[in-house]
Specification:
Elements (H helix, E strand, L loop, with lengths): L1 E4 L2 E4 L9 E5 L3 E6 L4 H11 L8 E7 L7 E12 L2 E5 L6 E8 L4
Antiparallel strand pairs: 1-2, 3-4, 3-8, 4-7, 5-6, 5-8, 6-7
Length: 108
């Protein structure tokens, strides 16, 4: 799709992405449930920081956004606990809804 803007021609790429999980919010934390068919995502993360998740590990969460023209948003979150496919993270500035991707952020 090509459209004209005030600054000239711009290209818009349309793509369909399948969610791997969902966000549930509560008072002072956020839960991310990874769907069982995407268990490999959680397994890959566990391999990076061992069987006992490292409390305080920084994660990058790609999720659906309801604000602005961008439909996806990347948000940093701090891992509090992992219980199987359920990740409990610090409170995120995100609406409840689909998660598209999640990865560990390299330590500095």
């Amino acid at each position: 799709m090509i459209s004209e803007s005030k600054l000239g021609w711009q290209k818009t790429m349309l793509m369909t992405v399948e969610p791997i999980g969902s966000i549930r919010k509560s008072a002072n934390k956020t839960e991310i449930l990874i769907y069982s068919e995407f268990e490999q995502v959680v397994s890959n993360m566990v391999q990076k920081f061992g069987d006992n998740p490292e409390k305080g590990q920084k994660l990058l969460v790609v999720h659906k956004s309801k604000d602005g023209i961008n439909q996806l948003k990347v948000t940093e979150a701090t891992l509090i606990e992992r219980n199987g496919n359920l990740l409990t993270v610090s409170k995120m500035d995100a609406s409840e809804g689909p998660v598209v991707d999640i990865s560990t952020q390299p330590s500095s």
